[in-house]
């Protein structure tokens, strides 16, 4: 399957994407993770991306699209993929359509994760991510690690993402409403959108998502 995951920051896209990709046996492609990997390797792309990310803004389309295209063209993505955080505006959605058209392939579904604003703010404020593997995500109140600051899964150090600070979160939410939400209508016109609630226990949301995707 070829799936795009959308939803506001803090809706649980990363958590659900990891689980869904595993169940569906397709690679999880997160542009946010790709940028963070570039930042930790201190590449030119990482240096450029960091200034936009720290402010809560989108990294320019040109570099983002090139990076996403490069990743989607790797051999493990031939049979399908789950895109998490890409596309993030209508121009990126257009670029993705062009790429898919060139390859003669189509998206199967756009999964829209819905969560109320006060809830996503709470989730982001308490979010702690593992430095070794960003798929290992905890929350100081909702899913605390056994030992503070240490990842239960691999023992890595838990940290708060630079862009999870309160002021940056407000910008990210605004960017989501003004730039990303319009892609939901763009894909709705193509009959691809399935919307589910992102509220409730992680397992329940995953089950809801798989159920919604089974109709696609
Ligand atoms: P995420 O991990 O998806 O929350 O992304 C973190 C940050 O990376 C975003 O706030 C943006 O600054 C940047 N980013 C991730 N994906 C994109 C994208 N498709 N277009 C532009 N910027 C992006």
Automatic annotation (TrEMBL):
Superkingdom of origin: Bacteria
Amino-acid positions noted as binding AMP in the UniProt annotation, renumbered to this chain: 31, 36, 57-59, 85-88, 92, 161, 172
NMP: region residues: 30-59
Catalytic activity: AMP + ATP = 2 ADP
Keyword presence, Transferase: yes
Known partners and oligomeric status: Monomer.
Protein name: Adenylate kinase
Organism expressing this protein natively: Streptomyces edwardsiae
Classification of source organism: Bacteria, Bacillati, Actinomycetota, Actinomycetes, Kitasatosporales
UniProt gene name: adk
